[in-house]
Task: structure prediction
Amino acid sequence: MVVRLRLARHGTRNNPFYHIVAIQNSKARNARPIEKLGEYDPVPRPARQTAPPTAYAKLKNAPGYNGDIITSGISSQVQMEKHLEWNEKRILYWLKTGAQPSKPMARLLDRAGLIPPEKRDLYKGLFRQRLTSVDEPVSSNKPDA
Result:
């Protein structure tokens, strides 16, 4: 039984939402997984902020009241962020038992630092940077004129 860590797509059209799951390799994308490990929302959405001001905050004696202006604590600039939530202990457990991450999942794990540098060659889909020494001179193919 080959177990994969991969993304199961949920959500609606043009609004994807993924569950991070441990599932048998031969199963369909959205089949029932062995274990749900987390959630990933790749669409940037407004960051979770404080709630709008309550009726109490609108009173003149409430903190935050400055004459005519009532400050609510909500920033005028909305920050957009992607949402990623997972159980790191369970993901490391599945990797230790031999589960292979899919290419997108391997990239997420690599960015989070869950894949050690010595094991980066084991997983497909990771960006492999060419290592060059600082002492090595860079050779050019241009002839001297």
Summary: The chain has a mean pLDDT of 77. The longest helix spans residues 103-112.
